[in-house]
């Protein structure tokens, strides 16, 4: 009976990698996800330290469990990303839209991700984060960055959205898009 119960109540699980440069707001965004979908009070953004390793959040949508894996973005930690690629179903690539000086580096890392064989064909959502600050790159400028590497994206699903990990703006829209693309790829 317990085996039948587990089978009937099991959830399909999908992994979403939350990637981006250090300081882009990945962990703050993850904390907002936990709060929005699970009702768990998020960590105070002022107390969030740079991620060394992995942070995780799981949210339930319909009969699915989305597992968000926030991986440290410092250049010397990016080598651990590769150990998570094989099981990834989508990428949430977070860009600090308030830091124009690191836009070329963010573009370079994203370009590298598009060339990784294990990630071929999985959807990528580029979130222009920190839209709550006054000194931001507009979403259109981040789209220009994506358009400049469009030839490397092939037929991959890619979307650029604006958002704020602190305010939660765009969080639900991002999750909805990722979920819909994962379900579409499942077909």
UniProtKB/TrEMBL annotation:
<comment type="similarity">
    <text>Belongs to the small GTPase superfamily. Arf family.</text>
</comment>
<dbReference type="GO" id="GO:0046872">
    <property type="term" value="F:metal ion binding"/>
</dbReference>
<dbReference type="InterPro" id="IPR024156">
    <property type="entry name" value="Small_GTPase_ARF"/>
</dbReference>
<keyword id="KW-0479">Metal-binding</keyword>
<feature type="binding site">
    <location>
        <position position="73"/>
    </location>
    <ligand>
        <name>GTP</name>
    </ligand>
</feature>
<dbReference type="GO" id="GO:0005794">
    <property type="term" value="C:Golgi apparatus"/>
</dbReference>
<dbReference type="GO" id="GO:0003924">
    <property type="term" value="F:GTPase activity"/>
</dbReference>
<dbReference type="InterPro" id="IPR005225">
    <property type="entry name" value="Small_GTP-bd"/>
</dbReference>
<dbReference type="Pfam" id="PF00025">
    <property type="entry name" value="Arf"/>
</dbReference>
<feature type="binding site">
    <location>
        <position position="51"/>
    </location>
    <ligand>
        <name>Mg(2+)</name>
    </ligand>
</feature>
<dbReference type="GO" id="GO:0034067">
    <property type="term" value="P:protein localization to Golgi apparatus"/>
</dbReference>
<keyword id="KW-0460">Magnesium</keyword>
<dbReference type="InterPro" id="IPR006689">
    <property type="entry name" value="Small_GTPase_ARF/SAR"/>
</dbReference>
<feature type="binding site">
    <location>
        <position position="27"/>
    </location>
    <ligand>
        <name>Mg(2+)</name>
    </ligand>
</feature>
<dbReference type="GO" id="GO:0043001">
    <property type="term" value="P:Golgi to plasma membrane protein transport"/>
</dbReference>
<dbReference type="GO" id="GO:0005525">
    <property type="term" value="F:GTP binding"/>
</dbReference>
<protein>
    <submittedName>
        <fullName>ADP-ribosylation factor protein 3</fullName>
    </submittedName>
</protein>
<dbReference type="GO" id="GO:0006886">
    <property type="term" value="P:intracellular protein transport"/>
</dbReference>
<feature type="binding site">
    <location>
        <begin position="129"/>
        <end position="132"/>
    </location>
    <ligand>
        <name>GTP</name>
    </ligand>
</feature>
<keyword id="KW-0547">Nucleotide-binding</keyword>
<feature type="binding site">
    <location>
        <begin position="20"/>
        <end position="27"/>
    </location>
    <ligand>
        <name>GTP</name>
    </ligand>
</feature>
<dbReference type="InterPro" id="IPR027417">
    <property type="entry name" value="P-loop_NTPase"/>
</dbReference>
<keyword id="KW-0342">GTP-binding</keyword>
